[in-house]
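Hi P.,

Sorry for the delay on this. The queue was packed all week, but I finally got your sequence through. Input first:
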Amino acid sequence: MGISPAEVEEIFRAAGAFLDGHFVLSSGRHSPRYLEKFQVLQWPESTERLCAAIAGRARDLRVETVAGPTTGGIILAHEVARQLGVRAVYAERAESGPGRAFRRGFQLRPGERVLVVDDIMSTGGSVDETIAAVRAGGAEVVAAAVLVDRSGGSAHTAGVPYFALWEVSIDSYDPLSCPQCARGEPARKPGTTPAAMKGA
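Then the structure:
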């Protein structure tokens, strides 16, 4: 089942997930706009519809497993995998050092065909870390997909076919060059991922 970028935008706006303010993103960058994906993902019907669009585009890729980064990627990986009739796994932050790893007994076979999914992409960090974790397990990443690419297409994934359901350009700034910081506007850090860590 296909979905247009305008329909994805409407789902986010209707859920109250497209916010204005001064935000610290999980990548550590600052932005005047924030997409709170959990306002969307709290609704199973909307989640099912968005994931159906990803599953539809991935159906010919012979996907064997869907992998997503914690936290929102767990929900998406599970629902996309359900619709494709395969299993879902998720990559958590590594216990020591940077990057992500599959823990809790998750194993990937050499050559296993994996689709990587995530919710919002700003810099591509979470997607790239998940791709690296899949490759470290010996599996093959056949594609990566996100609900929203807020970089306007400037973020890149690690050499795999990639698509976003909605691509939108939302400014983000290094904290040292953030105009809102320069005006003394207080910033808030939504979500649960520490801003000091490299993120989505």
